[in-house]
Specification:
The protein has 176 residues and is an alpha+beta fold. It has a single domain, classed as Maf protein (Alpha-Beta Complex), CATH 3.90.950.10. Helix content is 32%, strand content 26%. The protein is built from six helices and five strands. The protein has a five-stranded antiparallel sheet with strand order 2-1-3-4-5, with helices on both faces. The longest helix is centred in the N-terminal third of the chain and has 15 residues. The chain is globular, with a radius of gyration of 17 Å. The model has no long low-confidence stretch (mean pLDDT 96).
Length: 176
Amino acid sequence: MLDAAGVAYEPRKPEVDEDSIKGLFSDASEIASKLATAKACSVDASDWVIGSDSVVSAAGRLFDKPQNRDDAVNHLRFFSGKEMLLTSAVALARNGKAEWHHVETARLRVRQLSDDFIADYLDAEWPEVGYTVGVFRLEARGVQLFNSIDGDHFTILGMPLVPLLGALRERGLLLA
């Protein structure tokens, strides 16, 4: 997303124990925000650091990325016919200190999924969707999972990009 938007960056791996943070909170917005902020703050840099994270919930249950293909099947069966909430957060930090964050939630209504569809879908999309918390890539066949979608496209892709671009402009990091 940052490449497509023309934002120069250098990827760095954050040092964050996600499970310990997830265990402290039960609200998806709070979890996503705390994870994004922790990731941004964990990178030792004097320059600005962007951190982001996404959380999926359905029927009051929070989901992690599937551990394997069988786990992905179980997630998709659970999502079938339900509303999925995808909450994405982005944070900016400098010198290990959080300076800004933003959280957005999209509502995705999953259609009834047959076992045959799930098998065919995973045959085509595995293992790529195994790296996503909702077991889908909206920019690929994952769009077939849904009856309707309410929310920002970039939030669904994993980061509220438009608010981030505004925050970068406010800090003089992008041209106004």
